[in-house]
Model the fold of this input.
Amino acid sequence: MTDGPLVLGIETSCDETGVGIVRGQTLLVDAVASSVDEHARFGGVVPEVASRAHLEAMVPTIERACREAGVRLQDLDAIAVTAGPGLAGALLVGVASAKSLALALGTPLYGVNHLASHVAVDVVEHGPLPEPTMALLVSGGHSSLLLVPDVTRDIRSLGSTLDDAAGEAFDKVARVLGLPFPGGPFIDRAARDGNRIAIDFPRGLTSGKDRQHHEFDFSFSGLKTAVARWVQLREQAGEAVPVNDVAASFQEAVVDVLTRKAVRACAANGVDDLLLGGGVAANSRLRALAQERCDVAGIRLRVPRPGLCTDNGAMVAALGAQLVDRGRTPSRLDLPTDSSMPVQQVQA
Ligand code: KG4
Ligand code: ZN
Done:
């Protein structure tokens, strides 16, 4: 086993109760209990349902993580927990649990930023992060382009979505197409049998003044509306909707914009390494097109495996271990949650 601090991470910002344990940059366990099935019939995450599910899953998930990693709680060097951004009630469950553990064990506590954790997690897969790294984080709750000189204390936002998050657009379009929630994986699958140039859907904020003013921002709500309208016109005309082609063309519009802007951000800032994170980074076409465009631009691409791209506890533990390593000060035991914690703030 490699050296480094033994850190347990707790993540409850959305609908996944994640508990991960790392030793330095080695992942020991990544235990996740998801309440996604409980939200499916509502077509989106219901905050109160998520909070209750976290409460029920927390202790069993911590116990399972320790058992599978062969770790005793009293051996931990630190506990890290997502303090924000995320659903207020859901965050409270994780932070209260982490505080209780830290207090009972006398262990340092680090309240951390969810987005910084999405960036930090890649060390367990691909080793130390180059400094600086460019990060494209795309999930159901966020779409951000970040310049990261030091994930433990210096993260700069270059752009983010002005309306829907990328994953949200996938989920809403899936609904229009009659596919289940969460829609991303189903669109990904349907798109494999579709033609991505069948329909020329709009690429938000990529031309004219919009592009000038929002070079690294994203907008997906116009695209979502365009898809809904296209499908509606077909249905009104009594024609069958070519689901696979719509899925492929929609997906292409999203990943074209994401990869184009990410590669341009690297060039504009002289950064040679691009990291993808968040649930949408599991998308097969995003991974392929990002690789293609990075190869052309001479950029190294880092993408954690899908299980580490979606929300999990390992990412929080991984950031915690890097904070310990760099000698950052632990959080106070009365640290607050912050549902809209700015990305520039790594620690609470
Ligand atoms: O990071 P995540 O697990 O939770 C947060 O939203 O923070 O991301 C979930 C999002 C959902 O919107 C889901 O549809 C999307 O990630 N997603 C995908 C794929 N797998 C998950 N989107 C596109 N393609 C996928 N393969
Ligand atoms: Zn996330």
Summary: The domain at 6-121+312-325 is CATH 3.30.420.40 (Nucleotidyltransferase; domain 5). The chain has a mean pLDDT of 96. The chain has two domains: 6-121+312-325, 129-306. The longest strand covers residues 26-34.
